[in-house]
Amino acid sequence: MSLVPFDDRDGWIWLDGQFVPWREAKVHVLTHGLHYASSVFEGERMYGGEIFELTAHTERFFKSAEILDFKIPYTVAEIDEACKATCAKNGLTDCYLRPIAWRGSEMIGVSAQQTKIHVAIAVWDWPSYFDPEAKKKGIRLTWAKYNRPSPETAPVAAKAAGLYMICTISKHAAEKDGYSDAMMLDYRGYVAEATGANVFFVKDGAIHTPTPDCFLNGITRQTVIRLAKDRGLQVIERHIKPEELSDFTECFIVGTAAEVTPVAEVGQYRFTPGEISLSLMDEYARLVRRELVPA
Ligand SMILES: Cc1ncc(COP(=O)(O)O)c(C=O)c1O
């Protein structure tokens, strides 16, 4: 893990339409986004000079803002171009991108109708979300303390900063106990997702994955479902009870940061990274590098 703080690096950050030196891309302490989580963001990766599913990410970015009742003051095409330009300005062709939009400082009460909407894009080298050695063997997850909330309780379809509060607490508790991550249940007690990635299971050659009705239907999740179906694998989206994990032989989590990561343990349940997890991990890696042409 890098020990170089994220506010003390060389490079350029795109901030409200301009490139600013990395260390100068700051916000004031009285920023609405900081106090009330009126902030939405994206996580994307560029592979060999191309951002995987760039426009899908940008469109989700705009959708997330709309759900939080604000409008990003650019077009999707402008943000797409700004993402590419930020990678180029920093001389990176393989990197992680973090677009973020938030309410500014004009108002600091709960109501914030007149705040300016700010947008920034930062990019950096971020090779593997999980330790590469642990990844090959399958990572270990424990159960999270918090559940994903109901759509009646929170804007669950938005990639909104506030929804990550329970993820950070859960991931910290897992790491304290020596695990890589935590598996979250939803408000009904069904298996939902990890703290920053969707989950898949394998049983009798078929793939089972939770229905994304109270968490992000990740772009990687949708890609992996396509890859699996193209190979003729059956993909079943349904509600999965935690005790059903004893029936599954393989498990893997997927997300832009995690890519496809095999899982060896979720709490008391054990899995062996097998043919389906490992081949989808490999196919995804080839697809994002344009070495695999989708069917
Ligand atoms: C909570 C959560 N779920 C799922 C995902 C996977 O989404 P995607 O594949 O679009 O990156 C992410 C990562 O962005 C996430 O943070």
UniProtKB/TrEMBL annotation:
GO molecular function (one): L-leucine-2-oxoglutarate transaminase activity
Record field: catalytic activity: L-leucine + 2-oxoglutarate = 4-methyl-2-oxopentanoate + L-glutamate; L-valine + 2-oxoglutarate = 3-methyl-2-oxobutanoate + L-glutamate; L-isoleucine + 2-oxoglutarate = (S)-3-methyl-2-oxopentanoate + L-glutamate
Gene that encodes the chain: ilvE
Family: Belongs to the class-IV pyridoxal-phosphate-dependent aminotransferase family.
Pathway: Amino-acid biosynthesis; L-valine biosynthesis; L-valine from pyruvate: step 4/4; Amino-acid biosynthesis; L-isoleucine biosynthesis; L-isoleucine from 2-oxobutanoate: step 4/4; Amino-acid biosynthesis; L-leucine biosynthesis; L-leucine from 3-methyl-2-oxobutanoate: step 4/4
Full protein name: Branched-chain-amino-acid aminotransferase
Gene3D superfamilies for this protein: 3.30.470.10, D-amino Acid Aminotransferase, subunit A, domain 2
Keywords attached to this entry: Amino-acid biosynthesis, Aminotransferase, Branched-chain amino acid biosynthesis, Pyridoxal phosphate, Transferase
PROSITE patterns in alphabetical order: AA_TRANSFER_CLASS_4 (PS00770)
EC number: 2.6.1.42
Domain of life: Bacteria
GO biological process, one term: isoleucine biosynthetic process
Organism: Caulobacter mirabilis
Enzyme type, top EC level: transferase
